[in-house]
Amino acid sequence: LTVLSEKPTTFTITVTSEAGENDETVQTTLKFTYREKYPDETPLYEIVSQENLEDNDVMDIIKLLEQQAEENLGMVMIFTLVSAVQEKLNEIVDQMKTRREEEKKQKEREAEEEEKQRFHGTPVTIENFLNWKAKFDAELLEIKRKKMKEEEQAGKNKLSGKQLFEMDHNLDTSDIQFLEE
């Protein structure tokens, strides 16, 4: 509470919400000026400053102040007005949390849909299958050709079994020696 003047009585009160998620708060500073016939007449009030509030939230607070002031004519009402604004600020923090959770859920749903689309793939039809089969057979044929070429090139340096036996006569009796042992 900061008293700005005595005649007419003018003061400001800073109202802060309770800390929400991640210690988020919203805050507003209200300026009240008593009129001559207060409390039979509503005080003058305005929002001097605000923090983390959107324009529509500020308008809602002003409407709330108007409504509460009209309901409490004839009674001392500053405490009631400040309490109502305090509750409204707490609601705004809760709404911010709810919005954030909804956005998070929406992103999760979108990611899930995207994942489903990725795994959904192309529906198999006879035409699709025949096209795929032709490409697959061509790829297999190419792989077999490469393999055969590699074997031919590797086979030129290799000796056949007959050639080995003709070059080394010890191979004739090697199996017999192995069996004797």
Helix content: 55-70%
Task: Enumerate how many helices there are, as a single number.
Answer: 5
Reported for the largest beta sheet, the result is: 4 strands, antiparallel
Tell me the Rg in angstroms: 44 Å
Beta-strand percent range: 5-15%
What do we call the CATH homologous superfamily of the domain at 3-104?
Ubiquitin Conjugating Enzyme
CATH architecture of the domain at 3-104: Roll
Q: Which fold does the CATH topology of the domain at 3-104 refer to?
A: Ubiquitin Conjugating Enzyme
Distance between the termini: 109 Å
Roughly what is the average pLDDT, rounded to an integer? 86
Derived structural class: alpha+beta
Gross morphology is rod-shaped
Low-confidence runs: none
Spatially, the strands of the biggest sheet line up as 1-2-3-4
CATH class of the domain at 3-104: Alpha Beta
Counting DSSP E segments of at least 2 residues, the number of strands comes to: 4
